[in-house]
Amino acid sequence: MQTEKNNLLIVPIGGLEQIGANCTMIGYNDQWIIVDLGIAFYDKFGIEILTPDISFPLSVKKNIKGIFVTHAHEDHIGAIPYLWPQLQCPIYLTGFPMVVLKQKLSEFSWKDKVEINMVHPKQRMNIGEFEVEYVSLAHSILGACGIYIRTPAGKIFHTGDWKIDKTPLLGDEVDEKRLIEIGKEGVDCLLCDSTNVLNEDQIGSETDVKEALTRVISKYGDKRVTVTCFSSNIARIDTIFNIAKKFGRRVAIIGRSMYKMINAVSDTAYFSDTFKATVNSILTDEEVANMPPEKVLLVCTGSQGESRSALYRLARGENKFIKLGKRDVVLFSSKVIPGNELNIRDMQNLLVRKEVEIVTTDMEDDIHVSGHPNKEAIAKMYDWLTPRSLIPIHGDARMLYAQRDFAETKGIPEIFIAESGDKIKVLDGKLEKLAHMSFAFNALDGNDLIPLNSLAIRERNLMSHNGYVSVSFALSKNNDLIGFPSIVVRGIHIDKNNIKKIENIVRKIIATEIVKNKDDIKLLKRECEISIKKLITRNFEKKPIVTVHTHSV
What tens digit of pLDDT does each residue of 75-88 get? Predict the structure, then answer.
């Protein structure tokens, strides 16, 4: 699909049906830029990570001028290591995201081939048909920026993730002055974060979190404290390190992703001497086991109940050295991402059974604050930018439609609810859907990226619900049945009273099909599979995957 000449186009690739996998393409005059390239978390059928479908970007690969990263959270930057080898275009990002990206790419042999360009807020870059400017915004990670894109056909502002924080511990405040200036210049279309639009409450500051965590941790002077949070929330981790120093506790980092992130940024100029000193004296798991609980503070991944995360492994008792019990308290310094509620509850139940005390944001509000804007903050963004049209982004349907409804009350003239794959033309503040492309997520399966709707994943889904039956039998040179077939059943309960009955019926099915299809082994196997599946469905109300194997004797 080619871009119409002189048209300004928006093609969302991800981030509109779920939390994560954020990616948007902006096109003008047959040239394209990509804003963000993130992952989504899945945790089904052995799949933990999803990436956007880049079939459309690959179709215009030669015309892509670059990937522009708003910030370093996984749902905005995490797919680059998996997808860049196919796209092979320059990457633009601010200083801290650049540090994180380089750490992510360090283990790949092709890392030196990537053109990485560090940019600064307010720096205007002329790249092909586009003029691109990064604008400082506050978020729960350093270096977050919105992106202002100018073309002769119109101007677009993409917020990325953001919030209003007047007292951030690390990073910048919202550059309100520049946003007002941009609003006066004119914004034809605003793409705005919807993640927290359902929240009517006031959004606090990281300074509030520091005070709350200090107060809560002070209550547990006789216990070992574990704090779980997102590994990318470095401001939060910096706070935890300073609290540990205040109370004379040594720190241990549990979780590979967090350990890698902390090491990647520890030598940068963003962090305090306390942060750097703490990183240089991190306890090993074995050292933790040999220290008094009240002298230790653990920081770990797993706040979303990920089954393979550090905290879940601790809850299951799988850490060789660290065993949680009565003298432990776990603080959840994070929000619950929609869809993770059951996983988190199950993990917390495991902790409670070990008599671990847990503290969540339901019990202590300020031990976490959102990194996303509530309605009040979104209204301010509308006031600053005065956009002629709006596309809500970053959220599921509830969030996108909630921002639409809110924007209508604020007088936004044109609002468009987009889907991934829509091709949207921006003209004089009006939005027109020109076409729709069908996209499917890619799933990281081991070391391979495969479509989430691929046969392998669909088979896993089917097996998880209906089980698997394998039948094998021997044929003579004349294709007559020899002996009894071997039947293997997985995932379907068949008691001893039924197994012999099933075996006898299967043997009859095979014998009957041999008579019908003796000269066509492929057809024989296919007809056996159909008949055996019907047999299992009739007797057990399951529709398993059935495979039939033959061998000649």
Answer: 999 999 999 999 99
